[in-house]
């Protein structure tokens, strides 16, 4: 296996520049050994402290697999069964029908039929001072009242439809506490973190605050056309622990991945039997969409992409808005990657692991992963355009993965989303909806690189 270090390090540097990422860390594990680990950029900009493989980051929803693992351990111990109704352990939970109850399995696999209720947004906005929703959400009682109040929000019967539900994992954390007679964070520390020698990984506490190598979380914002990284806090309290509260380093997350790649074993001890471990990343429910790597499913705290260049790829990402992480592994190749950064809004961080894995299996990600060609095409199309003699002007901008056409005519400003005809932008044809009409839009690039834009009867030339 060739590491292709120069290639992926170059792509990481480009991604950090494009998405304004202060610091990022990466580790690769193969056959039970860490074969690469490195930090890029800064864990603290003002202090000039570099990111390292041991830097602790908030890993957000990657925590969900730890919660799922804890529940599977408790099932192995005979203390619960994932097919049990949630009410068996949380009688305060009132949502659902008695004849078709929501079970632990449904919460684990996000198949309860309950759509996202916004609890994560409440907490993140509150901690970061973005916007206070004034919704009581500071205790177990508050959270139960909030969840029970959403009975009318249920969309489908349990097991019928995927809805990613952070609140479901909050409930699972309480089930762990009641069946183990331990605080959630204590159970995870004693039964998962310690056996895997993840001794610095922890939930927000005085221990974390005093750690010498912890990343400063940054809220990256654009002000007056300039991007600024504002140091802040991790928006986490105990209500968020089971859904996304863990802090860890890529070095310690590599130990975690090793256990999954080794049938639950790490340095001679087994944290979970292999049958139950595989049940965690078994495809329990179709998430309803595909990725560049085939059909996507969700298991227990893990998702699976079914065709990663002929391999099954298991993974999970997580964001706290001010930090993020991504874990992926290929079980058949005993190969895994852990990535983390201190800008949770940086989407490109989630491409690092697929890029590294693609290189490690001997393929060129720039050629094989469509997003790179799409990014290249979009960057060419973005700009200012004008018609013959500059009579009409139009600008093409980008927000996320969507192009927008903006124009101002006769004091009326208009903005239309450009909807691509093909997912990979093969023919550079789009359409917009204007006046109830689906109107064609097409870009043309000649041999000299000049770009023209055709919208209905109009031809525009890119000028910058």
Summarize the model shown:
With 464 residues, the chain is an alpha+beta fold. The chain contains 14 helices and 23 strands. The chain has a nine-stranded antiparallel beta sheet with strand order 3-2-1-15-14-13-12-11-10, with helices on both faces. Strands 16-17-18-19-20-21-22-23 form an eight-stranded antiparallel beta barrel. A two-stranded antiparallel ribbon has the order 4-7.
Radius of gyration: 24 Å
Low-confidence stretches: none
CATH class of the largest domain: Alpha Beta
Q: Judging by the overall fold, what is the CATH architecture of the largest domain?
A: 3-Layer(aba) Sandwich
CATH topology of the largest domain: Beta-lactamase
The total count of strands amounts to 23
Structural class category:
alpha+beta
* Main beta sheet: 9 strands, antiparallel
CATH homologous group name of the largest domain: DD-peptidase/beta-lactamase superfamily
Global mean pLDDT? 93
Q: Approximately how much beta-strand content do the residues carry?
A: 25-35%
Q: Helical stretch count? A: 14
Within the largest sheet, what's the order of strands? 3-2-1-15-14-13-12-11-10
Estimate the global geometry from the Cα principal axes.
globular
Query: What's the structural domain tally?
Result: 2
Alpha-carbon distance between the two ends: 44 Å
Query: What is the helix content?
Result: 25-40%
